[in-house]
Write a structure and sequence with these properties.
Helices cover 26% and strands 31% of the residues. Helix 1 crosses helix 6 and helix 2 crosses helix 3. The chain is α+β, with helices and mostly antiparallel strands and 469 residues long. The protein has two domains: 365 residues; 56 residues. The strands form seven sheets. Strands 1, 2, 3, 5, 11, 13, 15, 18 and 21 form a nine-stranded mixed sheet that branches. A five-stranded antiparallel sheet has the order 4-10-9-8-7. It is elongated, with a radius of gyration of 36 Å.
Length: 469
């Protein structure tokens, strides 16, 4: 599979607007990068992000999990050039999650089978409208405005960090004091910005994911902006969709290997999470885990998004996508919006497959002082999703039998010893019966021949006696 070298032409970050309620991933969460809530009791605790990278374009998707009940959110994304903004849906994240999730399997039980029964051993059981017309406003240049679904968006640039912070504040974006220097850094690095808020009266109770696309290959995550609104630790799951495996370039990373895993039969679990936490702590809260990196058929992801799980109910037209309207007229149906989103996810990726690399980190707030660069290593081996554990702690409980009936359980070694003892006892009594029977049979076989020999001997002795007389 072909892969791309690192290019740093674009930075993307997100900051959101709106009251959020429920959504299918774990708890209240939706798209966001650095979140300006204006609420002191709201803290972002987790992000789920997708970075689709090809030689022609880069697209960032983002969702958040947070604690609290904010009245509003605002998004601010540093971009290079002009960005194309559109709505996405939760099902895209769900499809990638279910396909790339790590699965840890217990070793085989290896319990002794029931004695003298024909049973097989089973083995493992194992917002307000954005204001300002296009043009200059106090050192801020508004280059583009549009409405995307329930969002009002504005793209702008500035050469003066103070002017940009003033513009954001005046237009309803409550920028925390500790985030203003971060925005200033992006201004000094000559980035433009995309700002988004909800339209008043849209009756939005939860924020829909938004995708942001820019031209060129740019495998970079804007962690400096992600820092906004987070607590001491923020969890991030990142899927990189491309033509090869990607790894962190400027952050430490690790993989939990199968031979490191130990299955504890007492708890019914492995030490996978413990190892991940230990490796993260050893890095000072900066390391990323490469959970998996596998080649996936594009049609597989598209089918999950389109038709849902084969075990779910009847799919709804367009899934959880919304129609796209402009000027009061529908320009895309929900089905068309879905198809456009999937086309964007795999845009520029050659062939029928894509390499999807799943990364996970629990980053200390101090680690969010640098953006994350990911690059394609020379070693393009896959990292499978399945971990089949071979090492054990303690022993599983195995059934013990009286005849063919299970009458209790014991640790595997004791159950095996019990089975061996019963097997030896049964075999011993059977062998004795066979031996005695064989001796009797052999004795019976010898009896006729001994009788004939005795008669012959007596006859010869009689003849000799007569001759002497």
């Amino acid at each position: 599979m072909r892969f791309l070298s690192l290019r740093s032409s674009v930075f993307l970050a997100t900051v959101s607007v709106a009251s959020l309620t429920s959504f299918a991933f774990e708890s209240d969460a939706h798209a966001c990068g650095g979140c300006f809530t204006g609420e002191s009791n709201t803290v972002v605790t987790d992000h789920r992000m997708i970075l689709s990278v090809s030689s022609t374009q880069t697209t960032l998707y983002d969702q958040i999990k947070y604690q609290g009940s904010p009245a509003s959110f605002a998004w601010v994304l540093p971009i290079s050039g002009e960005a194309k903004v559109a709505l996405s849906a939760d099902t895209v994240f769900g499809a990638l999650d279910s396909t790339t999730q790590t699965q840890v399997f217990a070793p085989p039980l290896n319990c002794p089978p029931p004695p003298n029964c024909n049973y097989a051993n089973d083995g493992a059981q194992g917002a307000p409208q954005a204001s300002g017309d296009a043009g200059s406003s106090g050192g801020v240049i508004v280059t583009h405005q549009e409405t995307v679904g329930p969002y009002a968006t504005v793209q702008l640039s500035a050469t003066n960090p103070t002017a940009l912070n003033d513009w954001l504040t005046e237009n309803g974006y409550r920028v925390p004091a500790d985030v203003q220097p971060i925005i200033a850094q992006y201004v000094n690095e000559q980035f433009s910005f995309l700002a988004m808020k909800l339209i008043p009266g849209a009756n939005i109770t939860s924020m829909r994911p938004v995708r942001v696309t820019t031209l060129g290959a740019s495998p970079v995550l804007p962690l400096r902006m992600v820092a906004a609104g987070t607590g001491p630790v923020v969890g991030i799951t990142l899927w990189v969709v491309g033509e090869g495996r990607y790894e962190p370039h400027n952050f430490p990373f690790f993989t939990v290997e199968t031979d490191e895993l130990i299955w504890d039969w007492n708890t019914g679990s492995s030490n996978y999470k413990v190892l991940r936490a230990e490796k993260t702590a050893a890095s000072g809260g900066k390391a990323w885990e490469v959970e998996s990196s596998i080649d996936v058929s594009q049609s597989q992801i598209k089918n999950i998004v389109t038709y849902g799980s084969p075990f779910g109910g009847a799919p709804q037209p367009g899934g959880d996508y919304l129609p796209v309207s402009e000027g009061g007229a529908v320009t895309q149906t929900a089905e068309q919006a879905r198809d456009a989103d999937l086309a964007t996810l795999f845009s520029g990726i050659q062939g029928s497959e894509a390499r999807i690399t799943r990364l996970r980190a629990d980053l200390n707030h101090a680690a969010l002082d640098s953006d994350l660069y990911v690059s394609a290593p020379s070693d393009q081996r896959t990292v499978p999703t399945v971990r089949q554990v071979t090492r054990e702690a303690n022993q599983p409980q195995c059934p013990i039998y009286q005849g063919c009936e299970a009458v209790g359980t014991k640790p595997r070694d004791e159950a095996q010893a019990d089975a061996d003892m019963k097997s030896t006892s049964v075999m011993g009594s059977s062998e004795c019966a066979v031996t005695n029977s064989a001796r009797s049979a052999r004795a019976a076989e010898r009896t006729p021949y001994a009788f004939v020999f005795a008669l012959g001997f007596a006859a010869v002795s009689l003849v000799r006696g007569r001759r002497k007389r």
